[in-house]
Amino acid sequence: MNMGRWYPTACTLENGEVLVVSGSGTLGDGSAMNALPQVWKKGGGWRDLKDAKMIMGYYPWMLSAPDGKVFWAGPQRQTRYLETSGTGKWYDGPASSIWLRDYGSAVLYEPGKVLIVGGGDPPTKTAETIDLNPTHPPTKPQWHETGKMAFARRQLNATVLPDGKVLVTGGTEASGFNNETGGVLATEVWDPATGQWTTLAAMKVPRLYHSTALLLPDGTVLSAGGGMAKDENERPYTHYPNAQIYSPPYLFKGPRPVITSAPEILSYGASFGVKTPDAAKIQKVTLIRLGSVTHAFDQSQRFALLPFLATADGLTVNAPADSKVCPPGPYLLFLVDQAGVPSVGRIVSLPG
Amino acid sequence: MAITALVLAMLTALAGVPPGPVQTTPTPPVDAAGAARPGIKPIPDVEVRDQDGRKLRFVSDLLKNRTVVVSFFYTRCKGICPITGRALARLQAALSAAGRNDVYILSLSKDPEVDTPRRLKAWGKRLGVKPGWLLLTGEKQKMDELLLTLSGDPAQRGEHSDALLILDLDRGVWIRDAAFLDPEHYLQIVDDIGRRTRVMGRL
């Protein structure tokens, strides 16, 4: 890379290349933000987006948009689109409503649809959505306020679940960078169909700065870490070198559908077979990209619904039509039944 | 009017004012997220010292009758502080070019027991700090009180926070924003504050 990148964001592009932005390196007498976006080329080596230099802060929320650009969703309110071809170019996007949702989270909860939630100081319980998909006639995407969480949260994690809902864990209601006195133990889940939040089971310990939450193949969520040992900077945080496994309500609604077999590698635009004895009761087939989460933001996760037909011994499923919806890489494939109960996920790959 | 009342009045006022030119989407009505801010108290009018050793009252000498940009740093910081410092240097140059020398930049040390005026002066010299940008320190207890009110944390080093505040207490404005954006972004806000014609977004 052109220089170091401490706290960068990486985003896989539709062609399998990887965009990396921001992070700080060393320049002169101290740290400097790396303003040059770069693209890791499929054949190896870096392409500099030299016409798109931008100081962006730590771990910017970069999410691939349906038109092939990458959407900078926050945490600042003024959003932008980055054209990653050639030498790069920025375009202005719509502003969200909160000046700074720092240490909030952003989720691509459906193709082209983004949820931003929490963050800020004092922490906010608000959340907003935007639909970046093209419309006919064309309209400019706008942010819309969705339901509010029951708890304001900063330093939270947001995790897309196999049924398409979004789980939030951890965070703090209290003002300050990482104020554990306001730690929120209760989890909440957001339903994109209603825009409403439901408060769910509480964790045993608060998880704030440096905590993580990751969807596991069995449909549970690993909630881990948080805090930081006292160091040379005298940060007085408690650290939590432990983890809990969260089981969402869908695991208590009856037997799980079973995937007997599924291909390991899918092809864009092609159908594939999934063997299951539960074909008649399957309501959704979903893909969720494997997560890579840190500092309240999962740089990889995305969710897609796949069309399917039931057959005698399983399902015929349509893979994503193209790589704009699901860029190349590894995904979890789930079958979700009429009661909302997901199968254990199968890891599948979309080749670049 | 007490500062708390001013802030609350501002938050209330935001609910009914239409959005302005920077903001391209309608601002939904303000909810309790701002009004219920934990820890909002009147900003303490404590004594601080700038990089020239001058003793100043934070509210009565520095906040009254002006728009200010408030940032947080410490001189031993090798992480975010040099980055935000450079951003503020660009902002000061832009303010000067726009004839807005009335807008002060106030950078408060999060390490007041180490950051003497002399150390502040040396740090400012490296960044080319000019008059109108005050680097401030003070007694630890007083700085704790001040920093708690402004940032939610007492004086402590090491956080990776790149937020700044834009305050105009006489107009009831309290904005918390990212510290790394283009100077033109902040100039627009400062101009809008002067016109008092638009919603400034939510806290």
Task: Summarize the helices and strands and which ones pair or pack.
The complex is a heterodimer of chains A (352) and B (203).
Chain A: E1 6-12, E2 18-27, E3 30-33, E4 38-40, E5 46-48, E6 61-64, E7 70-74, E8 76-83, E9 89-100, E10 105-110, E11 113-117, E12 127-131, E13 143-145, E14 154-160, E15 166-172, E16 186-191, E17 196-202, E18 211-215, E19 221-225, E20 243-246, E21 271-275, E22 282-289, E23 293-294, E24 297-298, E25 303-305, E26 308-310, E27 314-318, E28 329-337, E29 346-350
Antiparallel strand pairs in A: 1-2, 2-3, 2-4, 4-5, 6-7, 7-8, 8-9, 10-11, 11-12, 12-13, 14-15, 15-16, 16-17, 18-19, 19-20, 21-27, 22-25, 22-28, 23-24, 26-27, 28-29
Chain B: H1 3-14, H2 32-35, E1 47-49, E2 55-57, H3 58-63, E3 68-73, H4 80-97, E4 104-109, H5 117-127, E5 133-136, H6 140-151, E6 163-168, E7 173-178, H7 183-195
Parallel strand pairs in B: 3-4, 4-5
Antiparallel strand pairs in B: 1-2, 3-6, 6-7
Helix pairs in contact in B: 4-7
